Amino acid sequence: MKTFLLVAFALLACSMQRASAQPSIPEWGDAFLQDEVAEIRITIDPDSLTALLDPANGGNEYEWPATFEYHSSTRHDTLHYIGFRMRGNTSLNAAKKSFKISINSFIPGLKWLGLEKLNLVANQNDPSLLRAKLCWDMIRRYNLAGSRTSYVRLYINDEYRGLYIHTEHIDEQFTSTYFGDESAHLWKCTYPADLLYLGANPDLYKLEAWGYRVYELKTNTEQDDYSDLAEFISVLNNTSAGNLTCALEKVFNVDDYLKYLAIDVLTGNWDNHAFNRNNFYLLRNERTGVIEYIPYDLDNTLGVDWIGEDWTERNVYSWSQTGQERPLYERLLANPVWRNQFTYYLETFTSDWFHEDGIISYAAQLQELIAPHAIEDAYRPLDYGYTENDFLNAIDEAWGGHVDFGLRDYVNARRQSMLNQIESFSTPQVANHVHAILSGNELVIRATVEPGPAYVAAYRQWPGGSWNSAPVLTTADAAPGGEEQRFSFVDIPEPVSSVEFNVMSQTAWNNFQNGSCASRYIHIAPGVTQVVINEVQSVNASTITDNAGQADDWIELYNAGTSPQYLGSSFISDDPLDWNKWRLPNVTLDPGDFLLLWADRDPEQGPLHLGFRLAATGEPLLITEVVQRAPRRLDQIAIPPLNVNQTFGRTTDGASTWMVFTEPTPNGPNGVVKVSEIAGDLIPVWPNPTDGPLHFNRPLTGRLLSSTGQEVMTLENARSADISLLSPGLYILDGGSWRIRIVRR
């Protein structure tokens, strides 16, 4: 019988939360240069370009293969076989087209400077070519998630097609960059996305308009799960005014939305949710358990008007369209606390940036940077007849038509109108991006705090127990979106499975009664699970290959319970601080069944392929669920260092003891030996592994099974079996009282 090496290990005592839950605003990077205008060159078959630009194909999202080149003062990159197409909606009929570059359309997994897609936006309706970038940069200034932008010269087949704004694409790469969560649910919301309640059934929010879903799920599409969106909309519409503050802040990042809203109102962004039911994303942030709001398409701003409205004069508290319901805007501004916050942000942003020495001075710098490239752009005048002077004077003069104001006049008029309209306010006390870290016996609570006299954190054992407060932290000098603050408690009582905690202002603490409002949790004890990590291989050289023929590392899951288990609501990760690194596939695992996940960082190869790899030197591996909007560990192991083709697995399926196997069993029972004894004699099988015939030292009768248990061949008194026509992988030769593992190379 085979001897196995037993390995002792301990579960890591680690946090179930990341160090920060607030958006991580990335550096500009080489893809978004701010001090020069880079050059993008597209080389495409002329016939393909003709078909792409043909008006008869307008709106066609077919991607044509092309070559991409990027040139700046610091780098020169060339990528072949990228996808190239037009982008936009109404702009599809413009003379100056907007384009999308898809880096990984034809070469799965390919990225350029961490990006999978590039949006080249013409902004043909803006004579200044400044408005969208000014708004995006204002969002970035206040530490909100928003697209990075830069200016580029675009050439197609060596023809200069004009000056474009390169705008960061909002997709799973964006959610990973800004929220550390590539597996988050992300909905693109387009007209008429009013967030009105349609009913409790999540499928009701899959409604369509003009052939598109109004709330289109852009990630995790195989799950097609709208339950989080439906819950948010239900809370927003159906909660009483008295309970709304607590209820909505549990499911929606109210504070950041109020900042976005203040920027929209200042910049006159009417093609947004609050006015036009359009142009925003909703993201389910698994770290905080709330929905995040993210805007997009910011060109109809700063004095651009298509509907006959003076956006400098429109009342900041009556922004939505008359006669149309906007529950998000209306209910927030009907709440005195949130209305006060909104007013504070309006005044703060106006004093800090929205004035001559701020945004207008910055606009002049941008204009100087792009002027030679804009003037050379022969496509720029084609749609509206913009002249060179129209561009050069756009900061100080209105063009007319749909451009009611020059940038300077708009900012000054909106600023004065806003200051005349806003109500008196007090400096708010706001805690946002609240999360917890457990370190040994110390509970560390982190939060981003806004200006106010003081903040206090509180915790208690959940359920029950008394509330305790940390020392008051003074934050009177903190700026909006300021640094994260830390509150620490020690001596958490034992045993305790979960801790309920809260972060609030000193005033709120003085009035605090039972802690039920916006309470948050951190789970200390693991949850009960039927689906477990059963076997892992971190150095797969020849054990088994995936559907792409690659010998990648793998993780085997096993349902050790008695009922089917759905996996798609849980997460798997090799980093306890990044517990939701990858969402498990949309699969229901029956009792006794196995599921093989490929840890190959090739998710484009299918839903069973993960976005991370395993380390041969050993690392943690964990499965996590979300309970009460907080992560709770279901299963966790510490993978030891492994040699080539070794695996680390439970001694038998679902057992609590682990060992290193020198004979792996992917998608098969653990603990099965390679050769079983019959009447004291052994059954040699050679060659094994093989890519052709197998030979036996005696006639055998049995079945050849795939790694998933499917019968692929029967043997009757056979001395050989030709498996050359079978796919590479692991097979089991089953003779009833004995089993032999066969590896097809």
Could you give the order of strands across the largest sheet?
A: 2-3-4-5-6-8-7
Helix amount: 10-25%
Number of strands: 37
| Computed structural class | alpha+beta
Q: Name the overall outline.
A: globular
The biggest sheet amounts to: 7 strands, mixed, barrel
Ends apart, CA distance between termini: 25 Å
Total helical elements = 13
Q: What's the layout of helices and strands?
A:
Elements: E1 5-6, E2 38-44, H1 46-53, E3 64-71, E4 76-87, E5 98-102, E6 117-121, H2 131-141, E7 149-156, E8 159-168, H3 172-179, E9 186-189, E10 208-209, E11 212-213, E12 215-217, H4 227-238, H5 241-251, H6 254-267, H7 273-276, E13 280-285, E14 290-295, H8 327-334, H9 336-352, H10 356-375, H11 388-392, H12 407-421, E15 431-439, E16 442-449, E17 455-462, E18 468-469, E19 484-489, E20 498-505, H13 506-510, E21 520-523, E22 531-537, E23 554-559, E24 565-566, E25 571-573, E26 582-583, E27 588-589, E28 594-598, E29 619-627, E30 630-639, E31 647-650, E32 658-661, E33 685-686, E34 693-706, E35 711-722, E36 729-734, E37 739-744
Parallel strand pairs: 2-7
Antiparallel strand pairs: 1-32, 2-3, 3-4, 4-5, 5-6, 6-8, 7-8, 9-12, 9-13, 10-11, 13-14, 15-16, 16-19, 17-18, 17-20, 20-21, 22-23, 22-31, 23-28, 24-27, 25-26, 25-29, 29-30, 31-32, 33-34, 34-35, 34-36, 36-37
Helix pairs in contact: 4-5, 6-9, 10-12
Descriptive report:
The chain contains 13 helices and 37 strands. The protein is of the alpha+beta class. The chain folds into four domains: 38-421, no CATH class; 431-523, Sandwich (Immunoglobulin-like), CATH 2.60.40; 531-661, Immunoglobulin-like; 685-744. The radius of gyration is 30 Å and the shape is globular.
